[in-house]
Amino acid sequence: MNITLQVWKQEGPDRAGRFATYQVDDIEPEMSFLEMLDILNERLVSQGDDPISFDHDCREGICGTCGVMIDGQAHGPQLGTATCQLHMRKFRDGDTITVEPWRAAGFPIVRDLVVDRTSFDRIIEAGGYITVDTGAAPDANLIPVPKDVAETAFDAAACIGCGACVAACPNGAANLFTAAKINHLNLLPQGQAERWARTEAMVEVMEEYFGSCTNHGECEKACPKEISIDFIAWMNRDYVKAKVKNRRLMGQKA
Amino acid sequence: MTINLDPRVPAGPLADKWENHKFSMRLVNPANKRKFKIIVVGTGLAGASAAASLGELGYEVEVFTFHDSPRRAHSIAAQGGINAAKNYHNDGDSVYRLFYDTIKGGDYRSREANVHRLAELSLNIIDQATAQGVPFAREYGGLLDNRSFGGAQVSRTFYARGQTGQQLLLGAYQALMRQVDRGSVKLHTRTEMLDLVVKDGRAVGIVTRDLVNGAISRHSGHAVVLATGGYANVFFLSTNAKASNATAIWRAHRRGAAFANPAFTQIHPTCIPASDEFQSKLTLMSESLRNDGRIWVPKRAGDNRPPNDIPMAERDYFLERMYPAFGNLVPRDVASRAAKRMVDAGHGVGPLQNGVYLDFANAIDRLGRNTIAERYDNLFQMYERITDEDPYQVPMRIYPAPHYTMGGLWVDYNLMTTIPGLYALGEANFSDHGANRLGASALMQGLADGYFVLPYTIGDYLAEYLNTDPVPTSHEAFGEVEAGVRERVSGYLNTNGTRTVDWFHRELGKIMLEHCGMARTESGLDKALAEIPALHEEFKADVRVLGESESFNQSLERAGRVDDFFELAQVMCLDAKNREESCGGHFREEYQTPEGEALRRDNEFAYVAAWDWTGDPGSPELIKEPLEFENVKLSTRSYK
Amino acid sequence: MTTTSQRPKKAPFPVEFYRSAVGKKWVMAVTGVIIIGFAIAHMLGNLKMFLPDVNGIPDMDIYAEALRSLFSPIVPEHVMLWLLRVGLIVAFLLHVHAAYALTIMNRRARQTDYQAPRNYVAATYASRTMRWSGVIFFAFLAFHLADFTLGIQPAAPETWEHGRVYANFVAGFQRPLVTAFYVIAVSLLGIHLYHGAWSMFQSMGVNHPKFNAARRVAATIISGVIVIGFIAPPLAVAFGYLK
B215 pLDDT exceeds 60? Predict the structure, then answer.
């Protein structure tokens, strides 16, 4: 099949960007979207043209490295699918496909389609963990975790940190990412000790980088792991409680 | 200089070795730990767990990853699970049984003491991960669930849906980020190690390139820890992530770290075959599919009728025919080789005739579609997403693909390489899996090394250097290495050839798959050993890398990695040629039983083949570490 | 969690809470509930237009007087009404301020917008036009207060007289332009509530698998009832049913 690509080209964070148009002929419907970009890049290099930079790694939808806006949708038109698992057969011969990087102040552009998502690491750093030094753990079966709790915690923990939620959100909010990690840990018995401090800290670091949630629900539809916005509601509830509880626990001196 | 391969295995009975060793090692007192700076390269299971644990202990840690975040490492893609000898299911598992299974599964080419320690530590890993909040599968009573995996006769595999690697890595990543927040670990993202600095025979630092702005910089420490994963991407098409590479361990090898058993690579039988020439990677389908699927090819070579039009009588269920007792459940290496033989003989299926069928029609008839859906629906969906074929209607197509590399940097019992002060962890070392890794053991090894081995053993080395400063980065040892790195980087940009890096990588992969893949022959390896250096010369003369080094440049990143793969590929072939036996993932066609099974030659090859760099990738020096088996009796596998 | 405990916090807890975006959204939800409550009460009051006169006095006028003397003589006349009014004004101001502050925050969170058109999957027309429907409705409120509550010319009809609610209502909506503006504004309010009355559950963390589906139903019913209930009396005037 033959397609026309409009790809965002930008040499660096402070440089002006623009859409560049590429005609990509003779590609197979069996190719993944990223393989199509690979081929385009091979051809560009052979012609002496600058290849398109894009982030990717595992190519099986789990590392969260890839992710671009394809025709105005994060990770493209197939729901529940990361860019690397999107295949060209989802497009038609002759289509024009627009490819743009994630856009958010918290994700500055590095080059072309590559963005810097270290702000997500900062959110995890603020409290996205359970404090347990290596060696300090009790026997794994000491604390039973009801099956449905473990399953729901897993639903949240399935987040791959790709940033599609932020990219898709009309407000550039990272509530789904943050809520997923907060709920993964807050639901488990092991996570209770730090529950309120974690929620408060992670939400506040999140708000340093990202916008606010107005419950559009775009994030849920963009998420390759289809993580539910129910978790955002639960995070909101925990945050309200945390504001009270943390102060009480800390003698109003927090 | 011939290096001495002293494995430093502690004395005493097998089960007491680690305990005794922990007591006999020197300690660094808590107040002194902050005086030591440790460099950790890689943030997968092994690297992240090591960096977090060292940070908790109070060492000053600097950790490097070429990814944008430590959470991206390819450990994240492990599906099946992690083994631990908890015996929660009362089915007769024990540390000794896990040890025994691992030694046997590795076809008796690993060190007993290391493997026993791994089995012991498997218990602690599950405890640690659970306390971190890893959402392992649970039973209704709230206790941990286990499953049997990879043909094990006991249920010892802990799992988190099909994403166990992801959850364990996130646990280690979160522990690491806690230390980053505390300030005990300094994190460098999008920073790739390009060389190791050795001074007076000790590892004293690394030279890195910042992948965003191209800055080359020097980092110095009292010790350097490499946890940079395996090298299956030497085959170009593998189940590894696109960026997985061998540069860190290969550069260390060139600086004096012996490379052990490079030919021991694992081919996984159930991957989705390539769909075209430009396929970028292969996707693994869980091996559990073979429990219900039947594997077959058309009896007539070149038969390209749709599978459902081929009558039963014209199908060859070759595994059932060749191995009546085990049938479709023969081990990974046996199944892989049989499939290759069929495809090579022209019986391959699919548009490129590069696969065999894995058919669920019988299972669906017998058990009903619902039962099959309960067991495999997520895998069927993944298959359909990639191939656009519905496995409920049409048989799956599968073909073996390189998956894991058992070989790696040689390490002693302390995980130290032959360069003092340089450690290798996880898939980057060769230590525990022998010639073949059992399913659900890679996660176990990476975490054992990082959480529970290195934090103890590194102190024994560091204690000697108390109150010494790390070698300053202004030292000429750093200057020389940095100059070399700069020259290499600019060399790729100045070659101005005609072919892309990926073209060379793909060609190298074809040679390696053909001659150093599932089945190897002396003549094939000789051919590869002639073709690879020639292709490497062509690469040096004709590669085209555009752009500049002072900016984000992905072709440039890849150029260095592929350059190193060319050299590594040669030592892999040399090792495969040297090892005139078949064992585990290494199959030499000359050495098989009359039934076509692997023929191990314990009298001559019960050793670790460690290769020492001599300056010429075509003629490294072979040094042998004899393997002694005091506790297990060597036996031969049979699946008839 | 060093990040939390080391960060200096000076303001009292409610202020700290309101400083966060999650806190602001919670405030918007709570004030939204108050405003919806007022809207429903107001709508029910308006429906008294359809009730027959009592002793020659329109039921609407009696109701209005009752509001003014709510809880009288326990509290002096007008006090309770003003307390309610102040509460309502505070709720409106908080709702608007939070919306404004979050809008600024969201603009900052995406300084460069997408350069290609977006293809929304979940966001509705209602959810994406919240700030426009809100702002336009707020402008309408100013007119509406001048028209009926304060009787300021030229917003109010010439015959406007304090306390004669029924007559003012009829006179007001006999002007087609005013009625049209009213219908448009109330429709916008309906659209605003279609998203807002669902969204507030999420913002307050009211989420349970057993009634999550009912939240959307509730929001649809609330917005539908409010639109119909508010539009019915003016249309009855406009079409001559009420005189």
Answer: yes
Residue C83 makes CB contacts below 8 A (sequence gap 6+) with none
- A68 to A34, A82, A84, A113: CA distances (angstroms): 10, 9, 10, 7
B278 vs A35, A50, A60: nearest CB: A35
SS3 B202: strand
Minimal C-alpha gap between C2 and chain B (Å): 7
Nearest CB among A87, A110, A185 relative to B552 is that of: A110
- Please provide the average confidence, as pLDDT, over all residues in chain B: 94
Name chain A contacts of C116, Cβ cutoff 8 Å. Answer: 6, 19, 69, 71-72, 98, 100
Count of structural domains within chain B: 3
pLDDT digits (tens, 9 = 90+) for C66-84: 999 999 889 999 999 999 9
Decide if B490 contacts B480 (C-beta within 8 A): no
Chain A closest-CA separation from residue B399 CA (Å): 17
Cα B430 vs. chain centroid, distance in angstroms? 9
**In this structure, are residues A218 and A177 in contact, taking their beta carbons and an 8 Å threshold?**
no
Catalytic hit among B251, B332, B520, B558: B332
CATH code for position C183: 1.20.1300.10
Q: How confident is the model at residue C3 (pLDDT cuts 50, 70, 90)?
A: very low
Chain-chain contact of A128 with B177 (C-beta, under 8 angstroms): yes
User: Do B197 and B259 sit in the same domain of this protein?
Assistant: yes
Range of the domain at C104: 20-238
The pLDDT of B436-451, averaged and rounded, is: 94
What range defines the domain where residue B594 resides? Answer: 476-600
Chains A and C: how many Cβ contacts under 8 Å? 175
Q: Residue B612 — φ and ψ, nearest 5°?
A: -105, 135
Band of pLDDT at residue B277, cut at 50, 70 and 90? confident
Asked whether residue B379 falls in the same domain as residue B426, the answer is: no
| 124-153 of A, contacting C, C-beta below 8 A | 125-127
Confirm whether B332 is a catalytic residue: yes
Nearest beta carbon to residue C116 from set A72, A198, A213 = A72
pLDDT tens per residue, range A19-63: 999 999 999 999 999 999 999 999 999 999 999 999 999 999 999
What residues of chain B lie within 8 A of the CB of A145, using their CB? 138, 142
For A202, the 3-state DSSP assignment is: helix
Q: List C-alpha distances in Å: A64 to A165, B136, B523.
A: 12, 21, 43
How many domains, in total, are found in chain C?
1
Tell me which of B56, B132, B145, B454 to substitute to probe the interface with A (most A C-beta atoms closer than 10 Å).
B132
Contacts of C3 in chain B (CB under 8 A): 181
What are B87-131's pLDDT values in tens digits?
999 999 999 999 999 999 899 999 999 999 999 999 999 999 999
**CATH number assigned to the domain comprising residue B525:** 1.20.58.100
CB atoms near residue C242 (< 10 Å): 18
**Residues forming beta bridges with residue B145, ordered by sequence position:** none
Which of A19, A107, A212 best probes binding to C when mutated, by most C CB atoms within 10 angstroms?
A212
Shortest Cα distance from C1 to chain B (angstroms)?
9
Strands A3-9 and A18-24: antiparallel
Write the residue in A48, A130, A141 that is nearest to B144 by C-beta: A141
- Is the complex ipTM higher than 0.90? yes
What is the phi/psi pair of residue B575, to 5°?
-65, -40
pLDDT at B184: 97
Beta carbons of B182 and C3 less than 8 Å apart:
no
Q: Please state the rounded mean pLDDT for residues A198-221.
A: 97
Give CA separation, B354 vs B133, B321, B342, B343, in Å.
42, 21, 10, 6
Domains of chain A: 3-100 (3.10.20.30), 117-249 (1.10.1060.10)
- Is the per-residue pLDDT at A252 higher than 70? no
